[in-house]
Recover the amino acids of this structure.
């Protein structure tokens, strides 16, 4: 049975990849473990040299890899190239800082010497999604390998080329052959991998049900997990906001990656005094999106990644309309080949509607009215999700207070769209997951934080 790569712009299969057998999967796992036994003793200088070479290769190949990402999952070529280049950034970041982040920390006690040290755990399994097929992987792989672990990737089934390309770039950079491997296997084999003694921990980015399944199995095996799951990010627009800037930023966040991002803005909670003006500006911005061939440089919105995801999004929008939401633009499936969905704005959205309660993983925006700041915050937090959030106000102290103290999310931004940055920890709370990626916290997640006491 082959693994088919389908172009979402036209629905055609353009390449088939050989699926890895169970026996081959276990052979790779065994080799990954043996590689770790040596790799864990490598110096930070050696690891950094190789990781910087990965960054160089990513930049050299950004055009080729970007076009492959576009063919596999539909994001615009320009965005895909930017994604590859961002991966180079995270590689350079950890090449520069890993040794400092994992250096021994002396702690004064009654001992002659006591300190904390960070030891690699072993083989780390990564179960990754299709929406950022390079970035999601590299923000795990760069710190994990720099910490002295080895990595196995079970990527989403619709991006097999991306999975193999990531393996290729680590190999071409000079990493040991089995330091990072991609497993083109069925999702059903993830449980077996988690049960294996050589897999020491796992990380997953994806849906809530997928995260729950992996966490349940890993928990049974007493293995650590880091989960980055879904989100229904609220963006609060207050009466003193720069409305033109806020609307522009909100449009960008809602349409980034075709709206298929866990941290894309999804619920726009606007206080009543500026509701109509913001809505008009926001709708205007959404109408200006260019939905066309994602290989074109002027395209701002490509197709959705899969037909089933497009159909699910459409049903969420229609269900919300049946419950009383008002469709201002969009809301209809285009009559064309491929998995397209237009920029869609739903107004009069309230709790209890799919557009408020669920994650809208595509270019559909929900506008929610709030009487004042207090109600806006309450509506923002009325969600099972807690990944990202933003607030727009000219009063920076007010925005800082709301972001730091009031909003229930792992990343809270003021007058800016929520985004990941290697220098800052990234992750969520509630059903958006647990644990942190990136920054010094991310590289420590898959280490043995060990106390050493000498007397």
């Amino acid at each position: 049975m082959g693994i088919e790569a389908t172009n979402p712009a036209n629905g055609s299969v353009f390449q088939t990849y050989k699926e890895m057998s169970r026996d081959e999967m276990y052979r790779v796992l065994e080799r990954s473990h043996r590689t770790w036994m040596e790799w864990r003793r490598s110096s930070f200088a050696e690891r950094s040299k190789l990781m910087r070479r990965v960054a160089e290769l990513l930049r050299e190949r950004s055009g080729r890899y970007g076009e492959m990402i576009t063919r596999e999952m539909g994001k615009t070529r320009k965005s895909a190239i930017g994604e590859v280049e961002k991966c180079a950034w995270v590689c350079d970041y950890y090449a520069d800082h890993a040794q400092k982040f994992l250096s021994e920390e002396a702690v004064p006690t009654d001992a002659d010497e006591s300190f904390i040290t960070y030891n690699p755990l072993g083989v780390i399994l990564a179960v990754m999604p299709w929406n950022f097929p390079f970035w999601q992987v590299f923000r795990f792989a760069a710190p994990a390998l720099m910490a002295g672990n080895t990595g196995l990737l079970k990527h989403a089934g619709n991006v097999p080329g991306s999975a193999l390309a990531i393996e290729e770039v680590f190999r071409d950079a000079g990493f040991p052959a089995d330091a990072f491997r991609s497993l083109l296997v069925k999702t059903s084999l993830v449980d077996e991998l988690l049960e294996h003694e050589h897999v020491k921990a796992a990380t997953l980015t994806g849906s809530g049900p997928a995260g729950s399944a992996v966490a349940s199995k890993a928990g049974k095996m007493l293995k650590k997990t880091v989960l980055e799951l879904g989100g229904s990010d609220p963006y609060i627009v207050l009466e003193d906001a720069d409305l033109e800037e806020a609307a522009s930023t909100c449009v960008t966040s809602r349409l980034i990656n075709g709206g298929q991002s866990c941290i894309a803005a999804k619920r726009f909670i606007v206080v009543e005094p500026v509701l109509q003006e913001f809505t008009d500006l926001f709708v205007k911005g959404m109408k200006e999106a260019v939905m066309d061939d994602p290989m074109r440089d002027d395209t701002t919105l490509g197709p959705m990644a899969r037909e089933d995801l497009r159909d699910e999004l459409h049903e969420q929008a229609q269900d919300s309309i049946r419950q009383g939401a008002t469709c201002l633009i969009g809301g209809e499936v285009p009559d064309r080949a491929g998995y397209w969905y237009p920029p869609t704005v739903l107004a009069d959205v309230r709790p209890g509607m799919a557009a408020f309660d669920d994650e809208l993983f595509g270019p559909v925006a929900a506008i929610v009215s709030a009487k004042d700041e207090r109600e806006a915050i309450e509506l923002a937090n009325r969600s099972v999700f807690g990944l990202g959030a933003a607030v727009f106000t000219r009063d920076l102290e007010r925005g800082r207070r709301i972001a730091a103290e009031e909003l229930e999310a792992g990343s809270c931004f003021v007058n800016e769209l929520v985004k990941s940055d290697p220098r800052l920890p990234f992750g969520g709370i509630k059903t958006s997951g647990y644990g942190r990626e990136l920054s010094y916290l991310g590289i420590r997640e898959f280490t043995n934080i060990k106390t050493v006491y000498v007397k």
Q: What stands out?
A: Residues 104 and 117 are 5 Å apart (CA to CA).
